[in-house]
Amino acid sequence: MRKAEIKYLDRTAGWLIEDNDGYRFFYYKAYLESQDARPISLTLPLQVEAFACRTMIPFFDGLIPEGWLLDIAARQWKLDPRDRMGLLMHCCRDCIGAVSVHPLIME
User: Fold this and answer.
1) What is the value of pTM for the model shown?
2) Of 15, 31, 85, 97, which has the fewest Cβ atoms less than 10 A away?
3) pLDDT tens, 25-81?
4) b/e map of 47-77 (b: 16 or more CB within 10 Å)?
5) What is the pLDDT of residue 106?
6) What per-residue confidence (pLDDT) applies to 107?
7) With contact defined as beta carbons under 8 Å apart, do 31 and 48 qualify?
8) Residue 45, Cβ density class (10 Å: 0-12 exposed, 13-18 middle, ≥19 buried)
9) How many other C-beta atoms can be found within 10 angstroms of the C-beta atom of residue 19?
10) In angstroms, what CA-CA distances link 60 with 3, 54, 80, 91?
11) In whole angstroms, what separates CA 1 from the centre of its chain?
């Protein structure tokens, strides 16, 4: 299982988890309860229930570099270009836009 903290404007908005069942994203309860909470994407509206998908959730897949930039990232960090969670966790800490991805160490 791999887990990443998802931040919106440097605030913890939720977590993305990859496990044997696929991918799940859920919003942090404190974030949902804050008065200025905003969805990280129109496709991921604010809700308590987790969003689940067998493949990478499309919004997060869209953050991953493509083309020549993907080739450079895969070579630099020795990543499999098909490892969507690995790419997301290595390449999306400093994305363009308000959302960033921060890997969490799981034991």
Assistant:
1) 0.89
2) 97
3) 999 999 999 999 999 999 999 999 999 999 999 999 999 988 898 888 888 888 888
4) eeeebeeeebbebbeebbbeeeeeeebbeee
5) 61
6) 47
7) no
8) exposed
9) 10
10) 13, 13, 17, 12
11) 14
